[in-house]
């Protein structure tokens, strides 16, 4: 177990910083020592030391002057999908290996304005396409829970999850298109929180599937995640889908689960590993003991949600990635234009090319009605189904992932096997609901399992309140108790 500042929670370190018991400069220096110590995990792909120490110096002055902001002096990591001005922004793709962000994303600007400090950019699946962090051009990030065989940290925000779980930053930005915050959090034994679609601005985030993409956060506790999200959420006129809903105070969320009806899809239990089911029942028992009414519900089979998700996201990806032609973005080293061969497209990894081809197929004239158009109709049906369901239940609870973390060298028989890693998480993105993964226990290989909580849109306060209760009574110590060194 660690004995330095990196073993503390974000709230604990915030309290120490506020009263001057530790300086941001000392803290940043210590965090870089931790990053160096855990360099074998391949989490940070670029460090921003000059920026971090400059931010730390300004934070220390504000603290001494009594002008500390909400996140003053707290070091965090940023998924390499966000624009941080004057830092490289590659989406872990060779297609953008030399791109430097000329402006700041809205989410990171919000965090810097509250005093957070940027340690550097974090590893991810290329263009956020993947569930294991193995499609990155920088190589796979490694799960800190690895013991012998190297394990994946999940994806696409695997580097962010692994960094928080290893104690090399107090929180980390991720993005969530179909579970890319929640599934890695489950694999790494930490908290992963995706708010309602529109709560956080997408401006300055590299687009994968625009009607699904949402900023998310990794943290060591539900409270830490709430503290970070309070500073991330804002209305942004620069994002056409930015919500005008009142911004909640999540850090102080305290809505009782007593008397609330909690639904769980009983028809999903049959084919799951017994450890996954037992931890699921453990979460339901916690809520029931706190006075919640537990109610079985029926949902469609997994594949109905999964196929709709991949049909639509691949279509949006094909459209979004069409900008990487080498004219404005992409590889410009070849001055000769070959009309039959796009040099930038050749730099995309296999998974990115596969999803582009899928999307082009679904958007083609001959396939449109039974492709993209059908996907839109199915998504509307699914959303209506859940809106009706949320009239009867306040929250839906089920596992975050059907299994524990698997080996980096594991081979899927075909791409659809890999896509099934997202079976439990894609629903929240299809309907725009907030969702969170909270560590609930260990699986058959003594690796973390997360429980997945989801409410209807813009009910984050109840979601966070319930997640705090699950966390409290699950008593999962996670990264503090597990010897990752």
How would you characterize this protein structure?
35% of the residues lie in helices and 13% in strands. The protein has a domain at 5-258 and 400-408 and 434-480: Amidase signature (AS) domain (Amidase signature (AS) enzymes, Alpha-Beta Complex), CATH 3.90.1300. Helix 8 crosses helix 15 (460-474), helix 9 packs across helix 11 and helix 9 packs across helix 12 (372-389). It is globular, with a radius of gyration of 21 Å. The protein has 485 residues and is of the alpha/beta class. The termini are close together. It has helices at 10-18, 24-37, 49-64, 106-113, 158-165, 182-188, 222-232, 274-289, 302-320, 343-347, 350-363, 372-389, 415-419, 426-431, 460-474; strands at residues 44-47, 75-79, 117-122, 171-176, 191-194, 214-219, 261-265, 293-297, 395-399, 435-442, 448-454.
Fill in the CATH topology of the domain at 5-258 and 400-408 and 434-480: Amidase signature (AS) enzymes
For the residues shown, what is the average pLDDT?
93
Largest sheet: 11 strands, mixed
Radius of gyration: 21 Å
CATH superfamily of the domain at 5-258 and 400-408 and 434-480: Amidase signature (AS) domain
CATH architecture of the domain at 5-258 and 400-408 and 434-480: Alpha-Beta Complex
Would you list the SSEs in sequence order as H and E? HHEHEHEHEHEEHEHEHHHHEHHEEH
Structural class: alpha/beta
Please mark out the parts with pLDDT under 50 across 5 or more consecutive residues, or reply none. Answer: 480-485
Percent in helix: 25-40%
Strand order of the largest sheet: 1-3-2-4-6-5-10-11-9-7-8
Give the CATH level 1 class of the domain at 5-258 and 400-408 and 434-480.
Answer: Alpha Beta
Beta-strand fraction estimate: 5-15%
Could you give the count of β-strands? 11
End-to-end distance, in Å? 9 Å
Shape: globular
Number of helices: 15
Family: Belongs to the amidase family. GatA subfamily.
EC number: 6.3.5.7
Subunit structure: Heterotrimer of A, B and C subunits.
Enzyme class: ligase
